[in-house]
Amino acid sequence: MSAPGSADAPRSGAGRRPTVVAAGLLALGAAALWGSSRMTWVRAESSDGLGADRVTDLEGAKWAAATTPLALALLAAIAAAFAVRGRALRVVSIAVGAVAVAAAVPAVQLLVGGGDADTAARIAELPGRATVTAVTVSPLPAVLALLGACLAIAAAVALWRTPREQAGLSAKYDSPAARRDAAVRRAETDEPMTERTLWDAMDAGEDPTVDRDDEGNDDGDVSDSGTRR
């Protein structure tokens, strides 16, 4: 008999493919949001009537303060995507979708409505006597943030559509106790057995080569024979 799990290795790799794709999309989305947070979204020109006009560059981390934390949240979702399965993976996909929406909102507002002078003055923390005379919007960082949000949405869809039995890490990373419990559950529900599940069943003290109905019939025959004696 070959080593445990050797027959399941290609199948496990194919099963984890949706999660790997989602992880790649999350990484790209996080990188896009982080890069956008380091770029200048709005340039505000102000005057206080006392000296030369002042020019203030407002980066994404200031204009859309949640951009950096949202990028970190996408990175955390990568680890969660490999650590959980089933309903928990659905929760992760919903959370990723919420992060995508939160990242897209300020970018859309800036591209559609432009920069607001009062908002620029507040974020730039200008003195009360200063007045914003001009606001210049840089569309590229907002577009980059939208790209990151779209990548996060695609990752959320990939996670949501990942079949339950294909989610998470390969079964070879489960603890022996978890594999034994899974083997017992499969035996009780008559799920098809693979080479990995055969070994897990033997670890659980089950004989995977004996059908439960046959075992019951054998016990009945022994009991009947004993009664006839």
Automatic annotation (TrEMBL):
| A Pfam family of this chain | Trp_oprn_chp
For region Disordered, the annotated ranges are 180-229
Comp. bias intervals (Acidic residues): 203-222
- Give TM segment ranges: 20-41, 61-84, 91-112, 132-160
Q: Which InterPro entries match?
A: Trp_biosyn_TM_oprn/chp, Trp_synth-assoc_CHP
Q: Where is the composition biased (Basic and acidic residues)?
A: 180-198
Keywords assigned: Membrane, Transmembrane, Transmembrane helix
- NCBIfam families named in the record: trp_oprn_chp (TIGR02234)
Give the protein's recorded name.
Membrane protein
Query: Which species is this UniProt entry from?
Result: Rhodococcus coprophilus
